[in-house]
From TrEMBL:
Topological relation to the membrane, as annotated: Multi-pass membrane protein
GO-annotated cellular components: plasma membrane
Keyword annotations from UniProtKB, A to Z: Cell membrane, Glycoprotein, Ion channel, Ion transport, Ligand-gated ion channel, Membrane, Receptor, Signal, Transmembrane, Transmembrane helix, Transport
Transmembrane spans: 355-380, 400-419, 439-460, 636-659
Protein name: Ionotropic receptor 68a
Amino acid sequence: MAGNVVNFVLIAAVLITVEADIGLLTNDLQIRKDLESVLIDLLNTLVRRDDVTCFVIICDAVYLNVFEGDLFRRTFPVPLVMIVVEENEDLLSPNYDTLEALRQATREGCNLYTIIMANGFQVTRLLKFGDKYRILDTRAKYIILHDIRLFHSSLHYIWKRIVNVVFLKYHSNIISSPKNKPWFDLLTVPFPNPIKGVFISRRVDTWSGKFHYKRDLFADKTGNLNGEVLNVVYFDHFPSVVVTKFNGTNNVGGVEIEILNTLANKMNFVPKLYQPINSHIHKWGERDSNGSFSGLLGEVVSGKADVALGNLQYTPYHLELSDLSNPYTAQCWTFLTPEALTDNSWKTLILPFNLYMWIAVLLVLLVTGLIFYGLANYYINLLNYKNLKKEKNYNYAKPVGLYLFGEITNSILYTYGMLLVVSLPKLPTGWSIRLLTGWYWLYCILLVVSYRASMTAILANPEPRVTIDTLKELVNSKIACGGWGTQTKRFFEGSLDEMGQKIAERFENVDNPETAADKIAKGVFAYYDSSDFLKYLSVKRKTNKNLNNSTSIEVDQYNEKTGERNLHIMSDCVVNIPISIGFHKNTPLKPLADIYIRRIIEVGLVEKWLNDAMSKIRSKDTAEKKVIALINLKKLYCAFVALAIGYILSFICLLGEYIQWNFIVKRDPNFDKYAVDIYYMNKNKKTSIL
């Protein structure tokens, strides 16, 4: 498009059919021309500084003629969105065309809004709507026609959020003289100073054909807050905010407090810390039946608090109600579960190898036993054939050692004996069997050494604990699950994972973490929170027991007496959630605060503060104390289990031999109790000679 014809790019335009009263538009031609001129100077100044990427014009029929072709011909080409509203349009619920144009402006990243409308009530309703639903970018620059109705007390909260604004207040020429020209006062909001009762604007500049002071109309107001007091609401949640009692007063520390102090130093404000009413009950807060919010979020939503500290998760739910800074860390959210739901001491005998290793050992045992049996029978048959051929009888010396593997049962038993490092009574004949025996002995030595080393480590260390470390194990355990707030339950209900859905079915809302810890110790509950807080909760519970124990073994002995279980943090994370600092909705403080928080993270301060907070907890954790190598009766349950299995199998074999002797051997017609040796000799002749 040729620059001589049109000097702007039109992104989107909403042209609503209006029947403008020509008399109203031309009633005061001078006002329109002056307004047009000051807008041209403002837009050119901003564009010249590269501060405008796209701008939005919102006007009505009264001021439509201000935006004729002359304004666009005299301004630098910048993409724009132009919206013309009807006189009777309710901008608290705008029509579809207006709403789509506003959304288009947001998508295109427009950072300048020019609102020139005669009806101040329409402007106030537009600002309320844009702030509530985030249709308007409150951190953009605004040029608004001055109207006393914009400064009503019900709209004061808007001017805590839209601070980059210039109000154009027109002053007519009272004395008819060429030297006394009409002028515009360029006013802005008194940020960071709070609005107390009455809105008193602050003059930035004046315009009478040109700018008088030539100041920066949209200077950054957040870089230096001039020692202004900001209300900071906090909720005690380790390690973000740590509250300790000292002489009846609260000492507040933690990672987020350190970040807040850094921001206060760099942005020059004074934080005023306070807790919401009944914070121990409402905690972060939820929506009440009347639509308001309680707890931490209630203070932010109502605008009472400028900053919120309390381990706020970077989630769509919190983003809808407040502004969140760039995440300063990410936390693993998982479950605190009970340990030792079942005792597995009896399995110590099989713990050195996993399931697949045991399967491999058994398969090798069976295969090797069968191979020994096959080779032994091959040599026996070979020697029988040679003796028959030479002597034509069975009177020959039995092959040395082949009887060890001549029967399948003996072959498996002797192969198993070698696996237990029991030497053979005789070395079998046949080079193939001898070579196989040698290599099988090497295999047995390596296997037995590995097993013994693993068994020694298991017996020397504390007995293995049965823990829940995955969602699948938690679901299979059938214990109840819970956490704080209905939002947590909705998170699991919205899970695409089948395990998450099952967790949601038995998820309970728990307001008191200490109560949850007591239920976990009884082995009937699992509590959901961040892993750092769960570590703090478990250590705090141990500390409150006042056991004065020096080792984890004594703690376990106490648990055995009371029937309580140790607390275990599930190793698998359900989700890793970013954590942020909260601000009230559409705050102007967020952009600069994000820059400082990013620098704090880059230099490693957040990691240091987090380690400082967690080191105190780790030092109190008795589970991390030196482990004593101690063998007790409980660890050797497996030996008694193995002995019991041997007794049972021996008794079964004895019973089988008794039955076989009384009901098979004695009933044989050839059996003679006075010549048992002759009976077995005759019986053996019917079978192959070993």
